Amino acid sequence: MDDVDNLYAGLSFNGEDRKGNIHILILLEQKRYVVWKSAIEHLSSALDNRLHSGLGSLRDALISAGASISSPEPSELNRLLGTLCTAIDSLYGMLHPKESERLEFQWNQEVCEMQDVETLAAIRAASKPQRYKSVGVKVAMRYMARVISQSIRIGGRSRYIDAGCVDIDQKSPKASLDVSGISLIEDRSRTMGHYTGPDGKVRVLIEWKEYDVRWQEDHGTQLKETMDTLVNLLDPEVTPREGVNKERVLNCVGYFHQQHNHRFGFVYPLDSLGTVGDAMSMRLYSCNNVIRMTMPDTSTQSMRPDLGDIFQLAKDLASCLLAFHIAGWFHKNISSHSVLVFAPTAESVHKHVASAVLAGFNDSRPEASGVTLGPRQELKHYYHPLYHAGKEFTQIFDYYSLGLVLLELGLWCPISVLREDHAEIKTQENFRQKLLKSYVPQLGEKMGALYRDAVKFCLNAEEQVKKEQKGRGMHDLFKEKVEEPLCLCSA
Fold first, then answer.
1. How far apart are CA 56 and CA 81, in angstroms?
2. How many CB atoms lie within 10 A of CB 436?
3. Which residue from 69, 201, 234, 467 lies 20 to 30 Å from 455 (Cα-Cα)?
4. 280 class by beta-carbon count within 10 Å (0-12 exposed, 13-18 middle, 19+ buried)
5. CB atoms inside a 10 Å sphere around CB 350
6. 179-188, 259-268, 386-395: lowest mean pLDDT where?
7. Which tens digit of pLDDT belongs to each residue from 327-385?
């Protein structure tokens, strides 16, 4: 196989003398081959003849490519690439379909995990056939996450908008709910308003990112660059989305600055939510408050969402998180407070949980960035015990937060209520153990074993990874233990 590796090394993109579109596509096929090669030790000796034949075909295709790659004819380059693809397809054809599917996922990861920003930029910009669309979109997301850690401004374009273009509602979202007799949680990190832009006046969600004076003095430039890049990541016109349900994450058009309040406001138009109705009449409900409003023990309005809607929301939340992690971006703020429901009335809110969106990206950051503002007090229940102890944020902490949201959806009870029921438990770690021992098992009866085990993995991911990873990537494990099982849940 060394000769195949050497042939690839002389043909694929290097950013110097080999930086054409064809070199990029050969690089993508090289990564497919690398992933396949890493899996062949699992093949039986009965495949030796097929392996020899398949590798011979690939070697011949690479030699032919070396002789033809300088051709200016697009048809010749397309033929060259097609021959190369066919040779690698035949290697994948030796594997079980399930294994091939797993390797396809690993191939996407292998490409996205390249560290060189210039290479990622070239892949992002290259003209690609349909077969490379998925990996191309993931690379675009990864590229957007990488540039912030290297302080690169995308095209030099600031996403700053004038604060005068934004009218902020005077009434808080909680005050506008008009739900009497129920204790709701007020979240001052977001509000509603209107934005006047190139297409006229639209109803918007505004999410606040606060900072203190020392950020202006020490990290102001870095913070503003973070704002620009985060807006670009959440703008599908700049960063196409792969693995992120377009209806689960709102599009961001920019941010404005309220200097006197030491905060930035991210602006999300609501006209992209086609399933909710008239955007101008929308009211904002956190999923946490929806649960409080519809808990049978505390409310006369006990209509819960359909079980199928909860399963779909859970699956999409897991898929969104996986997609952002593959792109190298941590959410850092997952809670039922950041899962938002837009509905015209409190009486109908349970019908709109199916179209809830994941928000709260105002605290998120790239994996490679050390920038963090630390835990926010009102969301302390959703942070992993190790994050409470001051450990730097990792993707396992996002898994934990997601697991708590899934637990809340399954039990239809806010985590803060469970915490209050066990005030005698003094540490966050002991409370985590209480959830695993007493509450996660209840999900088997209510939501099924697949859902229960997915939640268990999220809440115990650190131990599960140590026990089961065996060299596999973290994304692989999350996909197998959480996303795929949730996809199988139905009602």
1. 17
2. 16
3. 234
4. exposed
5. 20
6. 179-188
7. 788 888 899 999 999 988 888 889 999 999 999 887 666 665 544 444 455 688 999 99
Single pTM value for the model = 0.72
SS (H, E, C) the chain: CHHHHHHHHCCCCCCCCCCCHHHHHHHHHHHHHHHHHHHHHHCCHHHHHHHHHHHHHHHHHHHHHHHHCCCCCHHHHHHHHHHHHHHHHHHHCCCCHHHHHHHHHHHHHHHHCCCCHHHHHHHHHCCCCHHHHHHHHHHHHHHHHHHHHCCCCHHHCCCECCHHHEEECCCCCCHHHCCCCCCCCCCCCEEEEEEEECCEEEEEEEEEEECCHHHHHHHHHHHHHHHHHHHHHCCCCCCCCCCCCCCCCCCCCEEEEEHHHCEEEEEEECCCCCCCCCHHHCEEEEHHHHHHHHCCCCCCCCCCCCHHHHHHHHHHHHHHHHHHHHCCEECCCCCCCCEEEEECCCCCHHHHHHHCEECCHHHCEECCCCCCCCCCHHHHHHCCHHHHCCCCCCHHHHHHHHHHHHHHHHHCCCHHHHHHHCCCCCCHHHHHHHHHHHHCCHHHHHHCHHHHHHHHHHHCHHHHHHHHCCCCCHHHHHHHHHHHHHHHCCC
- End-to-end CA distance of the chain, in Å? 49
Beta-carbon count within 10 A of 69 CB:
18
Distant-in-sequence, close-in-space partners of 49: CB < 8 Å, separation ≥ 6? none
In whole angstroms, give the CA distance from residue 95 to residue 42: 10
For the 163-488 domain, the top CATH level (class) is mainly alpha
Q: Are 337 and 286 in contact (CB under 8 A)?
A: yes
The arithmetic mean of pLDDT across residues 46-52, rounded, is: 68
Determine the distance from the C-alpha atom of residue 89 to the mean position of all C-alpha atoms in its chain, rounded to a whole number: 29
CA dihedral 261, 263, 267, 273 (to 10 degrees): -100
Phi-psi region of 218 (alpha: psi -120 to 50; beta: other; left: phi over 0): alpha
What is the number of other CB atoms lying within 10 angstroms of the CB of residue 122?
20
Q: Report how far residue 30's alpha carbon sits from residue 8's, in angstroms, rounded to the nearest whole number.
A: 7
Output the CA angle 245-264-373, nearest 5 degrees. 85
How do the domains of the chain map onto residue ranges? 21-152, 163-488
Distances 368 to 53, 364, 372, 393 between C-alpha atoms, Å:
42, 12, 11, 11
Under a CB-based contact definition with an 8 Å cutoff, are residues 193 and 270 in contact?
no
